[in-house]
């Protein structure tokens, strides 16, 4: 599997996490969720990208 394919798979797997951003903003604005959750989102995306890239790198 080439590098371009691995990057596309990684970005496609991050889309559902990015779709939670508007929901989290709404919940934080209403006061249901803490604002710290929004700060944790970039960290979770980075960890998810690293894990996905490492898994696709090991695929035959």
List the helices and strands and how they pair.
Elements: H1 3-30, H2 36-58
Helix pairs in contact: 1-2
- Oligomeric state as shown: single chain
Distance between the termini: 7 Å
Helical proportion, percent range: over 70%
- The tally of strands reads 0
In short:
The chain is built from 2 helices and no strands. By secondary structure, the chain is an all-alpha fold. Helix 1 (3-30) runs antiparallel to helix 2.
Give an overview of the whole structure.
This protein has 60 residues and is mainly alpha-helical. Helices cover 85% and strands 0% of the residues. It has 2 helices and no strands. Helix 1 runs antiparallel to helix 2. The longest helix is centred in the N-terminal third of the chain and has 28 residues, at 3-30.
Which features characterize this protein?
60 residues; mainly alpha; 2 helices; elongated
């Amino acid at each position: 599997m080439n590098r371009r394919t691995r990057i596309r798979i990684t970005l496609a797997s991050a889309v559902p996490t990015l779709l939670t951003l508007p929901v989290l903003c709404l919940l934080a604005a209403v006061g249901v969720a803490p604002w710290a959750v929004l700060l944790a989102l970039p960290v979770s995306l980075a960890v998810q990208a690293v894990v996905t890239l490492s898994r696709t790198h090991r695929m035959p």
